């Protein structure tokens, strides 16, 4: 008995010893993977491909899942595929295992990859690779045709297709250049309109044609960056439109694969400033095109005939401040109707139209909004996850049961029968099968790491494919508690508060507020957050870590978003300052030691808070926009319009002008190759601090962009932040 007890004790001690230590290094390395679940891809026949990165590299392979039976079987011999790839002897280091590809064909027989700027094709059945291209130029953005017979791709800003059976490529456009882009996107379109996805072409459903964007960037001003390498530094150029400057000019082309002839779309009315979306109708005879005016207050939807190129106006959406981009347009197989999302009543809801643009009915309604459940940048909205046309059902995610959750709902296309499908509180990231019979749910909540489960469409659990992995976390991880904090007018702002282990309400703790604050960009959510790991590092140093969403950031409604329009800095700051003052009224908060930090928009709000209030002893501002004149035209003009029309707004929102009002110790962090928020933002603000005699600290990361991706920089940044807080809070 004593031996058994000793064995249990030794086993327990061994398991505890295997738990990782919470360090900045672990967070950036292993900690970045603790929330991973298998990747999934639904095939045309209703089966799915799984790829589990939790497994050791040697054991990873693609599996086909039958959702009806739960049967899983390997689709490829991974070791044989790697051997095949090595035999091709390409320039970069050969992967040690097969990886998730750029694209699968819809039949699940082939996968396409890009390595070292060349395209490789994997035949899953034979576990063998074929090299598609061998050129000095870089190929990118490969995509299978719907019938799986061809691959489209971009080379030197021109469109090509590759015939898989014939092993021949064909050039579809011939005027690509440094400033003329065919089927690939300019920076501002890549970032702000298509959500950091460089796909500027779309296959027709019948696989015979491609629609594509042709972009003329020749009139867009250039920004430059200076690399410290080689001996004589390299100058890097970027086409980047700033408020009031020339934007890229785009037009929509339809190119026939057989003839390589392009027909240009001709839309009626005044030319638009932005082309937001291009989508084929199911019959391949028409394309839907969405456009936006320069003020971003009017969005128009057109249908264009694929043969003549002539467009017909279908509907208009308008908003006094700006119209958001969304991906919720769906053409029904009855060839008579389509579904369309709109915020016309202040909330994102779904509407059904006939193909002439006549409203048939509102599908969803109420004082709540449809919302994306994850997987996309927050500024690209996509809430519908599946449509079962045989039963007239639409599945979507929404905030109906609370703004910090993402739940799955179903409703009939006539607007009746609304019902909740998911059950557990928290966030359900849904990927539904094409026939809407099953869905994958990557579920988590603020205390629970993600799991991956397969459900039937009625919400009944079929199989658990991956469970949460709390054992991968360091021992003693604390979790935030969700709450609300009142704004000055009583508005309940979502908040989360993470307290140190052994928290004593009779003691007074320093508090650090994490902010973002942008429109419909919540920091508070009932979901697993990687931020939890860094917050625990700080909590172990005795800090209380807090996040608060000002009302415009909650995603509750477009009405609340629009409170940013008159003066974003004032609206965001007023709410967040009220939240901080509430915190200072709590007996466990040391009001003399409150800090604030954020990145990007959060870096901007950090500076707003520190120049428009005296509530903070210290703050860290990462990659902040300090003057809207320095940011890109699409985003800045949605909030503050063009500077030539509203110079007073640009002056009043400029943080450069407010540098002399800085209150508290400040650390600024940025990368010198930030092609999103250009370094001139930090440099202009720092120069103004110098002129005002204000002290500051700065940590600069050579040639890093807006989001750091290399481990050394991530680790160094976290350590620099921790050191700053210890010294100044």
Question: How would you summarize what this structure contains?
Answer:
The protein is of the alpha+beta class.
Report what the structure shows.
The strands form ten sheets. Strands 36-37-39-38-40-41-42-43 form an eight-stranded mixed beta sheet, with helices on both faces. Mean pLDDT is 95; it is low at 1-16. The chain has twelve helices and 43 strands. A hairpin with a 5-residue loop joins strand 9 and strand 10. The chain is α+β, with helices and mostly antiparallel strands and 729 residues long. Among the domains are: 36-129, no CATH class; 361-472, 6 Propeller (Neuraminidase); 473-728, Rossmann fold.
Describe the secondary-structure layout:
Blueprint (H helix, E strand, L loop, with lengths): L1 H17 L5 H5 L10 E4 L5 E4 L11 E3 L6 E3 L3 H10 L15 E2 L5 E6 L2 E6 L4 E4 L7 E6 L5 E6 L2 E6 L4 E4 L8 E3 L4 H7 L7 E3 L5 E8 L5 E5 L8 E5 L9 E8 L5 E3 L9 E7 L5 E7 L5 E8 L5 E8 L10 E3 L5 E6 L6 E6 L4 E4 L21 E5 L4 E6 L8 E6 L6 E2 L6 E6 L5 E8 L2 E9 L4 E6 L14 E6 L5 E7 L10 E6 L16 H9 L4 E5 L9 H4 L6 H17 L4 E11 L1 H12 L5 E5 L10 H8 L6 H7 L11 E7 L8 H13 L4 E5 L9 H18 L1
Helix pairs in contact: 7-8
Strand order of the largest sheet: 36-37-39-38-40-41-42-43
Number of helices: 12
Main sheet record: 8 strands, mixed
Strand content: 25-35%
For this structure, the CATH topology of the domain at 473-728 is Rossmann fold
Radius of gyration: 26 Å
Low-pLDDT runs of 5+ residues are: 1-16
CATH class of the domain at 473-728: Alpha Beta
Please report the total strand number as a whole number: 43
User: Kindly, what is the distance between the CA atoms of the first and last residues, rounded to a whole number of angstroms?
Assistant: 53 Å
The CATH homologous superfamily of the domain at 473-728 is called: Alpha/Beta hydrolase fold, catalytic domain
Instruction: Kindly name the structural category.
Output: alpha+beta
CATH architecture of the domain at 473-728: 3-Layer(aba) Sandwich
Shape: globular
As a percent range, the share of helical residues equals 10-25%
User: pLDDT average, as an integer?
Assistant: 95
């Amino acid at each position: 008995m004593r031996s058994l007890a000793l064995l249990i004790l030794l086993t327990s001690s061994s398991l505890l010893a295997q738990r990782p230590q919470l360090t900045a290094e672990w967070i950036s390395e292993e900690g970045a993977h603790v929330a991973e679940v298998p990747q999934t891809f639904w095939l045309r026949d209703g089966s799915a491909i799984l790829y589990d990165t939790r497994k050791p590299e040697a054991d990873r392979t693609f599996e086909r899942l039958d959702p009806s039976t739960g049967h899983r079987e390997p689709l490829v011999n991974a070791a044989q595929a790697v051997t095949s790839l090595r035999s091709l002897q390409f320039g970069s280091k050969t992967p040690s295992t097969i990886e998730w590809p750029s694209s699968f064909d819809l039949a699940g027989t082939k996968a396409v990859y890009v390595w070292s700027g060349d395209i490789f094709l994997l035949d899953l059945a034979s576990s063998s690779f074929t090299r598609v291209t061998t050129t000095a130029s870089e190929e990118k953005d490969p995509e299978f045709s719907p019938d799986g017979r061809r691959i489209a791709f971009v080379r030197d800003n021109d469109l090509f297709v590759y015939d898989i059976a014939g092993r021949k490529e064909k050039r579809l456009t011939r005027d690509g250049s440094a400033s003329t882009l065919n089927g690939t996107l300019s920076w501002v379109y890549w970032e702000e309109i298509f959500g950091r996805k460089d796909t500027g072409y779309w296959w027709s459903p019948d696989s015979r044609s491609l629609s594509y964007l042709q972009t003329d960037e020749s009139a867009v001003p250039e920004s430059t960056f200076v690399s410290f390498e080689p001996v004589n530094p390299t100058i890097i150029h970027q086409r980047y439109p700033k408020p009031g400057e020339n934007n890229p000019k785009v037009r929509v082309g339809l190119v026939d694969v057989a003839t390589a002839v392009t027909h240009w779309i001709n839309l009626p009315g005044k030319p638009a400033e932005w082309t937001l979306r291009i989508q084929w109708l199911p019959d391949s005879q028409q394309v839907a095109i969405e456009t936006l005016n320069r003020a971003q207050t009017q969005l128009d939807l057109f249908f264009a005939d694929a043969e003549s190129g002539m467009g017909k106006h279908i509907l208009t959406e308008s908003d006094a401040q700006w119209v958001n981009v969304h991906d919720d347009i769906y053409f029904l197989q009855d060839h008579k109707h389509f579904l369309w999302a709109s915020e016309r009543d202040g909330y994102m809801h779904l509407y059904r139209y006939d193909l002439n643009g006549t409203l048939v009915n509102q599908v969803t309604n109420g004082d709540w909004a449809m919302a994306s459940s994850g997987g996309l940048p927050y500024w690209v909205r996509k809430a519908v996850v599946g449509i079962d046309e045989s039963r007239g059902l639409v599945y979507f995610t929404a905030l109906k049961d609370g703004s910090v959750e993402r739940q799955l709902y179903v409703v009939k296309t006539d607007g009746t029968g609304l019902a909740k499908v998911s059950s557990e509180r928290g966030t359900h990231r849904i990927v539904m099968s094409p026939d809407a019979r099953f869905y994958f749910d990557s579920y988590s909540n603020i205390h629970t790491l993600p799991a991956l489960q397969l459900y039937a469409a009625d919400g009944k659990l079929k199989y658990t494919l991956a469970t949460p992995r709390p054992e991968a976390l360091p021992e003693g991880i604390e979790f935030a508690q969700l709450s609300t904090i009142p704004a000055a007018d009583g508005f309940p702002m979502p908040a989360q508060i993470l307290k140190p282990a052994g928290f004593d309400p009779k003691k007074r703790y320093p508090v650090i507020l994490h902010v973002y604050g942008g429109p419909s960009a919540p920091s508070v959510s009932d979901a697993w957050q990687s931020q939890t790991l860094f917050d625990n590092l700080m909590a172990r140093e005795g800090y209380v870590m807090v996040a608060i969403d000002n009302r415009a950031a909650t995603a509750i409604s477009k009405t609340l978003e629009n409170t940013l329009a008159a003066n974003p800095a004032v609206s965001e700051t007023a709410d967040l300052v009220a939240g901080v003052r509430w915190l200072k009224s709590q007996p466990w908060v040391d009001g003399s030691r409150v800090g604030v930090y954020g990145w990007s928009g959060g870096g901007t709000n950090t500076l707003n808070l520190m120049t428009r209030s005296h509530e903070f002893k210290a703050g860290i501002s990462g990659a902040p926009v300090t003057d809207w004149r320095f940011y890109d035209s699409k985003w800045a003009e949605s909030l503050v319009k063009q500077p030539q029309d509203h110079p007073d707004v640009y002056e009043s929102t400029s943080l450069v002008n407010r540098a002399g009002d800085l209150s508290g110790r400040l650390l600024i962090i940025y990368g010198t190759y930030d092609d999103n928020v250009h370094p001139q933002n930090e440099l202009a603000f720092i120069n103004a601090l110098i002129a005002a005699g204000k002290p500051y600290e700065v940590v600069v990361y050579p040639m890093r962009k807006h989001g750091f991706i290399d481990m050394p920089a991530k680790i160094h940044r976290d350590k620099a932040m921790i050191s700053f807080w210890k010294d100044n809070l």
